[in-house]
Amino acid sequence: MAYSDFLLLFFRIVTICAISVYIFVFSLAGWLGEVVRSARFLQRVPVNCLWDGEMLLINEGLVTPFKFWRDGQIQHGMRFRNRLFRRAHCFNHHERQAAFDLSHQLMHGGAEALMTATASRYTLWVSLHHPGSESCNIRDSTHSTMASN
Hints:
Largest sheet: 6 strands, mixed
Shape: rod-shaped
Distance between the termini: 74 Å
Number of domains: 2
Number of helices: 3
Order of helices and strands: HEEEEHEEH
Radius of gyration: 26 Å
Structural class: alpha+beta
């Protein structure tokens, strides 16, 4: 096999590999674009409801807690899907029905609310940005026996 034949074969292999990489990269880019579009769609889904219109219940490990100053005291807050919420009330795990009853009352009153859950408690959160949430006059009445963030 002559040196020129070897170079020709080498360039054909490199060309085939380059085309394969090109196809793979654009396929991956298309797939990633679909993932990004899906993520953007999920961020636009209203936080106060699931598809069936029920209260949104979230594992508390999926939210980002923080503390802030309001009404002369430190308040508990959290961020979920780039929205800010303040803690309205905590319930122990035996008070599930009371937690959902209060959350539905708030939602029907115009507040944007959601609930987080751990193995031992349910926490009701109301939006810091939604106008209806300002009118709900629920203080964070977490009992001292409840775990605090």
